Amino acid sequence: MIQKKYIKKRCRKATPKLKRKIQHHHIKHIIFDFRDTKFMDSSGIGLLMGRYRNVIITGGKVVLIKVKPEIDKVMHLSGIYKLMKNYTDEKDALTHLQ
Q: How far apart are CA 34 and CA 23, in angstroms?
């Protein structure tokens, strides 16, 4: 079982790195691949929301791909799908982003 403390630590560590990369490389769109994600809590939702705020100001979008049913439930409950679309694969996501 993955401990929440570990997940929060990983999200806190990833957040500044992602933010720097988005700003440094002028990234407009982000695709988050959930293929290997087995657990998601509010820390993960917070990470997604933060990256959404980073790219939306430049007219960008955040999309999700390969969200598993157990993660899909969390996404629905959080309301994240009101801001980000979920696609079956990268090809579909890229088509939407063009």
A: 23
Residue showing tokens 């403390």: 5
- For 36-60, write each residue's pLDDT tens digit: 888 888 889 999 999 999 999 999 9
CATH code of residue 44: 3.30.750.24
DSSP state at residue 26? T
6 has a pLDDT exceeding 60 = no
Average pLDDT of the residues of the chain: 87
Question: Is 51 in contact with 30 (CB distance < 8 Å)?
Answer: yes
Q: What is the length of the chain?
A: 98
Domain count, the chain: 1
Give residue 40's domain range: 4-97
Q: Is residue 63 within 8 Å of residue 29, measured between CB atoms?
A: yes
pTM for the whole thing? 0.84
Give dist(CA 32, CA 27) in Å, integer: 13
Contact by Cβ (8 Å): 83, 53: no
